[in-house]
């Protein structure tokens, strides 16, 4: 991969940041099917109008959606279908990522090769118990930047 320019990185950061919300992902999913009035998104997603509008502003600022006023209402459409593809790629990446359990090495120690008194020989070494729990075991790396304000629900 060629080095990316600062402007390319800033564009990627803007788009990826806009996708950093489950509600915005749901909005993109709906807009990938057809354009929607704000009130349709409010009813379909079960969230308040101010919350939906706030998320739509983020998506619009990133260039993923645009809007058009129709009388007293505003209709939104997906103008970057690649955003929906990016969501599907993220899902595929997650599904295909090796789990700690799958990545753990299983060692089968053959019997008869153990030193005298080594009672554990011949046993299979397994992944740590934490990997078998099904819970994510990755420790998140803290972001050194201040935490941005999160959208608040008014419902």
Automatic annotation (TrEMBL):
One of its GO terms (molecular function) is DNA binding. CDD domains: HTH_ARSR. Residues 110-155 are annotated as: Disordered. Residues 4-98 form the HTH arsR-type domain. Keywords: DNA-binding, Transcription, Transcription regulation. It comes from the Bacteria. Residues 139-155 have a biased composition (Pro residues). PROSITE patterns: HTH_ARSR_2. Residues 121-138 have a biased composition (Low complexity). This is Putative transcriptional regulator. It comes from Corynebacterium testudinoris. The lineage of its organism: Bacteria, Bacillati, Actinomycetota, Actinomycetes, Mycobacteriales.
């Amino acid at each position: 991969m060629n080095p990316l320019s600062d402007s390319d990185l800033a564009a990627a950061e803007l788009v990826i940041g806009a996708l950093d919300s489950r509600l915005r992902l749901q909005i993109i999913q709906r807009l990938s099917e057809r354009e929607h009035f704000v009130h349709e998104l409010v009813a379909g997603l079960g969230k308040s109008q101010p919350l939906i509008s706030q998320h739509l502003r983020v998506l619009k600022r990133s260039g993923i959606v645009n809007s058009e006023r129709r009388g007293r209402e505003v209709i939104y459409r997906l103008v970057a279908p690649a955003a929906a593809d990016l969501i599907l790629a993220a899902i595929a990446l997650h599904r295909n990522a090796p789990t700690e359990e799958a990545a753990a090495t299983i060692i089968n120690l053959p019997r008869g090769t153990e030193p005298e008194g080594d009672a554990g020989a011949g046993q299979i070494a397994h992944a740590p118990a934490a990997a078998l729990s099904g819970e994510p075991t990755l420790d998140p790396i803290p972001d050194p930047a201040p935490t941005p304000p999160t959208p608040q629900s008014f419902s």
